[in-house]
Write a structure and sequence with these properties.
By secondary structure, the chain is α/β, with parallel strands linked by helices. Helix 4 runs parallel beside helix 5. 48% of the residues are buried.
């Protein structure tokens, strides 16, 4: 009997991962994690740029739109030192967490369109509640691992990683309204790509916990392919854990994605970002992706269009679009001319 159990257990451990062919879209029109107007209109802007149809062009992809999270709240604002709009951030993330869990339970990849990066608290929390063995790839110019004690701005979009990881739980005061979110995710399951604007205490945390972090100078040295492969190898040597990518559009260079609140020059090219997502897609283990910090109110029409387009390319690559093209299914030859 025991040997049978063992075989079954080994089979489940060695289960081969296949990319899910169905996705669920969640919009989060939320901007209270930072100070600039406009990032809340990104879900509508992405939809009107044809997000759903773009994804439907990917061979065999089943796309379901779960609509937008209602970000209106009656919560009274609470006072926590150096932390703006906490109760609104909390209320939005609570709803978002439940929605992400729902999409995953429906057997779909959760595709969340923000919103500022404070919504990463809700997406990762919702994913963790379904897949406790998940790993998190944070693609961003910034590390977003400040606490209210280390933050220079008091904006929560610079704090989501610190709120999520259990290792930093003791570095927070009691946070009213946040009781729903118990930090259980381990910093040992986190990796960074594209960093180039990291605060002192953030750097300290990365070094203290030995987080695999490929800043732009590391990507310079190793290339995007070896960088992501190294992170995946460190976090998941057996290649069996579901992957969550939280993609901040400002990871891409400000020339290629200008419409964002905290742009930093010298970032990923769009080609590198696409390649990064193709590599992650090829693992078959991507189960959630967030695309955040697109702000259509910043810059001119051309900037806006370029930034939204970059976002669409990143999502398409993550969900299986091939730049090589895809031959039609079940058809082996070109159409023949019929001569009458």
């Amino acid at each position: 009997m025991n040997s049978v159990k063992l075989i079954i257990r080994n089979m489940s451990q060695a289960r081969t991962w296949e990319a899910l062919r169905s996705v669920g879209i969640i919009g989060v029109p939320f901007e209270k994690g930072q100070k600039k107007y406009g990032v809340s209109i990104a879900p509508a802007a992405m939809r009107s740029a044809g997000l759903i149809n773009h994804l439907k062009t990917i061979d065999g992809l089943d796309v379901k739109d779960y609509g937008d999270i209602d970000t209106m709240t009656t919560e009274v604002e609470v006072n926590v030192d150096n932390m703006s709009h906490l109760s609104q951030v909390s209320a939005c993330n609570k709803k978002l967490s439940e929605r992400v869990s729902q999409v995953l339970k429906d057997g779909r990849v959760a595709v969340t369109i923000g919103g500022d990066h404070s919504i990463g608290v809700g997406t990762v929390d919702g994913h963790y509640k379904v897949n406790e063995d998940m790993i998190l790839i944070w693609v961003d110019a910034h590390a977003d691992i400040n606490t209210n004690k280390t933050s220079g701005s008091g904006s929560v979009h610079g704090m989501p990683v610190a709120l999520l990881v259990k290792e930093l739980a003791d570095y927070w005061p009691y946070l009213p309204t946040m009781d729903w979110q118990v930090p259980k995710f381990s910093i040992k399951n986190l990796g960074y790509i594209a960093l180039r604007s990291v605060d002192e205490y953030e750097r300290l945390a990365i070094e203290k916990y030995e987080v695999p972090a490929f800043a732009m100078e590391d990507i310079e040295e190793y290339g995007i392919k070896k960088s992501i492969q190294h992170i995946l190898k460190v976090l998941d040597p057996e290649m069996k854990k579901p992957i969550h990518v939280s993609f901040d559009i400002d990871s891409i260079d400000a020339l290629e994605a200008p419409s964002t609140g905290t742009p930093v020059r010298g970032g990923l090219s769009l080609r590198e970002a696409i390649n990064l997502m193709e590599i992650i897609h090829a693992t078959g283990r991507l189960r959630a992706i967030d695309l955040v910090e697109i702000n259509p109110a910043l810059g001119d029409d051309c900037d806006r269009k370029r930034t939204i387009e970059a976002g669409l390319w990143v999502l398409k690559a993550a969900l299986g679009f091939s730049r090589r093209g895809t031959a039609p299914r079940g058809i082996l030859d070109l159409p023949v001319q019929t001569h009458h």
